[in-house]
Amino acid sequence: MTDHVPVDLYAIDLPADADADSQPLVVIHGLLGSADNWRSHLKVWQRKRRVVAVDLRNHGRSPHAEGMSYSAMSQDVLAALDKLGIEQAHILGHSMGGKVAITLARQAPQRCLSLMVADIAPVAYQHGHDDVFAALEQVRKGKPTNRREADALLAEHVDSRPTRLFLATNLVRDEQGIMGVRVGLDEIQHGYEAIIGEPDGDSPFEGATLVLRGADSHYVSDDMLPALREVLPRARLVTLKNAGHWLHADQPDAFQQAIDAFIAAQS
């Protein structure tokens, strides 16, 4: 198995006025995301419990490393929890992060108090990010000096402005003022077959599970539900209206309420 990567953490200790019995929540972002994308939600959840959000390998502020298997990324997260002294936690993952969360729950169920999966199913998907990778490559080659130039380069391959704004969260400026790509783009592309594949693990996760999907998203379609039930037999499926794949951004209040209610029901 690939040695674990010491991933970057956004960790918030238990608030002074919180219930001492409250249990930690671990948040795992999706492909080309980062812990930063979740800060508004983390600020809400941190009022009640200890919260940890990770930057997966090749994402955010974490190191770049070959290998994007779900077992490897799950081991990265478990090693981070070991470092923080967290034995058990509620695990929430979105998209690719949802598959990491499923893998963690299947391979180390004793560490998972409950599992929450946002808009992903434990199935293999088709290729769907060629334009996104091409856009980031265009920025890397074009060496823009400001965000307007960077957006123009992204727009050569991606028409959707919301998608370009999301991709722009991966851009950083170097000492010469050149905007570059923060993520391990080469490593992610090399590992893309694993990313679009099924999560790792041999056995179903028998613990409490919430699967949230966006009504306007195709990532958890009805024909995927039998496969989902095989891997997550106790899954409760909730569909958020007027929400797409980024359901936590499209319907933040409904998303938070669904997560809070589910965790409260496990106490």
Automatic annotation (TrEMBL):
Record's keyword annotation contains Ubl conjugation: no
Highest taxon, organism lineage: Bacteria
AB hydrolase-1 domain: residues covered: 24-251
Molecular function as annotated in GO: hydrolase activity
Pfam families reported in the protein's UniProt record: Abhydrolase_1
Keyword Calcium: no
This protein's UniProt keywords: Hydrolase
InterPro entries named in the record: AB_hydrolase_1, AB_hydrolase_fold
Protein name stated in the entry: Alpha/beta fold hydrolase
